[in-house]
Amino acid sequence: MKKLLSLTMMLTLVAGLASAQVTLNYNLSSGTTYSTKVVLEQDISQAYMGQSQDVESDQGYGIELTFTDFEDGKYSVKMVYKSIMINQPMTGLSYDSETATTEPTGAAKAVASVLDRELQFTLSKTGEVSNITGFEAMLDSMAANMGITEEAQLSLFKSQMSSQYNIQSMKDQLKRTLIIFPDKELNKGDLWTEDQSVSAPFTMNIQTTYEVAAYDDETVTLNVSSDIFTEGGELVTNGATMTPDLSGVQSGTIKIDRKTGLILEGGMEQLISGVLNMTSPQEMEIVTEISGKTEVTGTVQ
User: Which ranges of 97-246 does DSSP label H, i.e. alpha helix?
Assistant: First the structure.
């Protein structure tokens, strides 16, 4: 009897362990809408030639994703910008579409022209983004919104904006709201890693480790930590050419809707430091430290 009781308890324990596992992927019905907002705040300290300066740079955007067809293991997704914010006191550029009471002008108008513009892409069950389309129509719509019709000005505008809105920059943005999940079952304490490259403001490699911290029937909480390194390449800004040599860390937590795989909320803090080696118009070394935080919120409908 005791042996039978022990065996029963063991089988119950095994069944309990099996039921505790969780599979993370995107599980979306046609017509599902996901509204997400990302806010990035950065304080940049720089020192060069006996001088120093502190620069504030904040930006944010809200996007709406609508999931339609699911075919060949991928969802078709429509993406629309619903809000945009930028605050860069050093350049005199400040605009927030959610609080603005007057029509934007100048550079702010160019920033605001992205509102309600649409792109399309496909998303795999594990989070791989591909087949991003719609840039040409989006840039034409942005130019029309700004009243740009003369051919030379239109060509210049589209060239300038395409450096900000292109396939790689869109993938970089979407990485903040769409996690790439492992194709396996997970339990509390399990880890997986992902290597990412981002191109703006300069090329960086981000090596991220995700840990399943907790989960219940509705949500999954992940601990996130990243090592960040620049990968060479030149940065050209305000007439200066620089090669970044920076590294840092990032950490925080993310809460995911267990049913759909979409982020409900998340917060990350980062610290990056090193030097920017200016090669033109003069040679100098700019000691740089960047501290920042990123907040993500989302709702599923």
Answer: 106-112, 135-145, 151-162, 167-174
